[in-house]
Every structure is written in C-alpha cells, then in structure tokens.
Amino acid sequence: MTDEEIFQGAIDGDESALQELVSSTREHVERVCAFFLGGDDSLPGAVVGTYSRALNSLGKQGPPSIPLKSWLSILATQECFPTLARLRGDYDQQSRQLEDLAGKIPTLVEISSDAHERVNFMIRGDIEDIPDQHRQVLSMAELEGLHMLELAKRLGCSWAVAMNRVISARHALSRRVRESFGL
Amino acid sequence: MAELSVEESQRLARLFLTGLASEADVQRLSAALPEDQTLALELLAQVQTALDDVAPEGLSKDQSHSVSARVEALVTPRVKRRGLFSLFKRLFRRKPAPAKPEAAPEPASAAAPLAAPAADAGAPMDEGAGLEEMAPIAPSAVDGAPVAPPAAAAGEPVGAEGRQGPATAPAPRRPSGPQALLMGLAALLALGLALWGLGRLRHDRRPAPAPVAPRPAPTPAPTPKPAGPPRRERAMAVSGSAANEPLPAAIPFITPQAAGQLP
C-alpha cells in the first residue's frame, strides 16, 4: 500500500489500511520515541499516544501532505514533548531548591554571593559522600558541565533518562547535605 | 501561533535539549510545537545527531505486548463493519482490466459495472459509509464512461479503489447526497424488476404435468387400411381407457375377423 492509500483507507475505516498504518510504522514510532524517552516509564504511553494523535488527526484534518513516517515522527515528537517539558520543569524547580539549600549554609554564604556558585561549591564539598552511580552523573553534569545531550550520549541513554539521572543524583546530594548540616 | 523561522526553530530546540533554555524559551517552544512541524523535526534531528543516530533501548517485551493491545483498542472502533453492502460490492466488482495504451471504450463488459451500484445501493448502509464505498463504482454508472483507473489496472489489492493512488489515477467523483439517493432508488427499482422478471421466467418455464403413459393397446391383426375413419375416434381407439374397453362391433373400420380377436 502507498502512503496515500493507507491514509485514505484509514479515514474510510478500512481494516487492512488501519492495520498497515500501525504495522508498517510501529518500529519507526518506537524508535523516535526512544530517542526522547527510551528507558523511561512514559515510553509506552508515548507510542500509544502517537497513534491516537494520528488517528484523530486523520479523522479531523484528513490525510497529511507529507510521507507517513515523517508525519508520525512529528506526531511522536509532539507526543513526547510534554514529558520532556515536565522533566525540564522538575529540573528547574530542583535547581531553585538547591540554591535555597546552599543559601542556608553559612560557610557557602560567606564564600560567594552568587547562588549558582554556592550550589557548585556545595556539590564539590559533598559529592564524595553520595553513592557511586549518582556521583558519576553529578560529576559529569555539574562539575564537567556536560549538557543533557552530551550526557545522554556519554551514558548511552535517552534524553529523558539522562535528565532523570541528574535529578536523582542531585536529590541524593541534597539529602546528604541536609543530613550533614541538620537542615 | 505563526510558524517559527528555521533559525529560530534550531535555536529553541538546541536550547531546550541542552537544558539552557530560559523559562520564556520553553514556553515559546511549547506554544509553537503543536502547529510547527519544522520545530518538531528539528528537535528530533538534534537528538538523533547527538546520539549518533543510535536509538536507546526501546520497549521491553511486556511493554510491547501492552502497547500492541492498546493500539489495537484504538484501531478496532475505527474499523467500519462490512456487511451485505460489501458483499455485493465484491460480487459485482469489475476485474481490473489490463492497462491499455489507448483508452478504447469497453464493449459489452462495460455494462457489468452498472449492475454493481444497482445491487449495492439497495443494501442497507452502515454509519453513512455508503457514499465513500459507492464512489469507486458509481462514476462509471453515472457518467457512462469506461472506468479503468490505472491503480486498479495494476492489480491493486481489493478495496483499494478510490483511494489516492498514483498521480495518474484520477480521483473518483463522489456522488452528492441527493444524487446518491436517486442512484439508490434506481438501483432498488432495478433489483426489484430483475427479481420480478426472474420469477416470471421461472413460472413460464414450469413444465406441464406429465401425461400418464398409455398402456400399450393390443395390436390388432394386420388389416387392410380402411378408408378414413374420423380422427377423433381413431385417437380414442389408442387412448388409455378406451383401449381397455371392448370395442363395439359396430365400429365400421374394424373387420369382423379382427373384432373377433379382441378381448
């Protein structure tokens, strides 16, 4: 079946076209979603959501004017993005919490007036006291200054997993600092 | 929201994925993404490039089964049930004609498609699917033009007519609502007439009751042929019941000797 036949058949409710729409693209959609969310619990929902978007879009807007796989790549990215944005929001919120925490440590306040710099000092001071798996990630992200894409490549994981691992590592550090300073 | 320029899409995607985007950048990206296909593709391209096009691990086996079931649940309600309508459609569907370099009008076989809408349109339709389903067949019936779409001629799978095929295949004209209704009524009428005619034909061809086989009458001795007895009496002489009764001697064309041999 051509892409146009799949689109029109799916709109008409043709069973073979609908099956073809899924079977011929399932691997591709999984792959696209895996770049963003591979290894994350939200991956299955993103794959299903991509097909849900596709079927709804066909019903409401008719067939797209681009090839099937390109179209599904766009839909898959749009489906994954809310999870990425949520993780990004969690990361930003955690950054603010760490800055607040660093601002409560008198030594760090004396050393620097810059909140970000205080966090950096806090990490350096306590990084040896957190578990290994967190230490490695925190070292790359906070001390080496790798950004998320580089971190994902270095760790061989998706963007979401890289972000999750940084968040977990910072959470472990934060817990360790609170315990140390009784905060 | 208007689409972003390519440069702006690249910049926003880069900032977001590296974790360097400001709150305003993220909001702008979130607002533009649902409508901006370039932006979505840019995000994907940058992730793919960063990971050297090697996708991280995908779904586990259990997750894959679960996704299959959930996608199936999405697809199933969208499948339109094919009933009698589809059966008729398949029965009367024209076989794809071999592609001809010159579009010559089709001879007698061109009448075949006419029967298809006639039979189809009388069948009950489901969920308003009739118009779409009728479209591939109807144009030939309406326009009287030979219909041999290249896609169909190329051995397209069943049910594929009328879809957007190759660029050479003209899109089938779909009948409007009233037009489809008229076609349906005409088809129903034609079907009724055909059934009525078939019934008449069967009635006319019903064989007459088989006559009772006459018992062979005893053959009289060869006699010289008399000169012309009435035809009716001669017929009575060989008919079943009459042949079993003793013949009256007064019958003029039986000689006295022959009459004596009769039972």
Helix-strand layout with pairing:
The complex is a heterodimer of chains A (183) and B (263).
Chain A: H1 3-12, H2 15-23, H3 26-37, H4 43-61, H5 68-103, H6 106-111, H7 115-126, H8 132-143, H9 148-155, H10 159-181
Chain B: H1 6-18, H2 23-32, H3 37-50, H4 61-75, H5 84-92, H6 112-121, H7 130-134, H8 138-143, H9 150-153, H10 177-204, H11 231-238, H12 240-244, H13 256-261
Helix pairs in contact in B: 1-2, 1-3, 5-6, 6-10
Description:
The complex is a heterodimer of chains A (183) and B (263). Chain A has 183 residues and is mainly alpha-helical. Chain A has helices at residues 3-12, 15-23, 26-37, 43-61, 68-103, 106-111, 115-126, 132-143, 148-155, 159-181. In chain A, 44% of the residues are buried. Helices cover 51% and strands 0% of the residues of chain B. Chain B has 13 helices and no strands. The longest helix of chain B has 28 residues, at 177-204. The model of chain B is unreliable at 98-172, 224-228 and 232-251 (pLDDT under 50). In chain B, helix 1 (6-18) crosses helix 2 (23-32), helix 1 (6-18) packs across helix 3 and helix 6 (112-121) packs across helix 10 (177-204). By secondary structure, chain B is mainly alpha-helical. Classes of the chains: A mainly alpha (183), B mainly alpha (263). Chains A and B meet through helix 1, helix 2, helix 3, helix 4 and helix 5 of A and helix 1, helix 2, helix 3 and helix 4 of B.
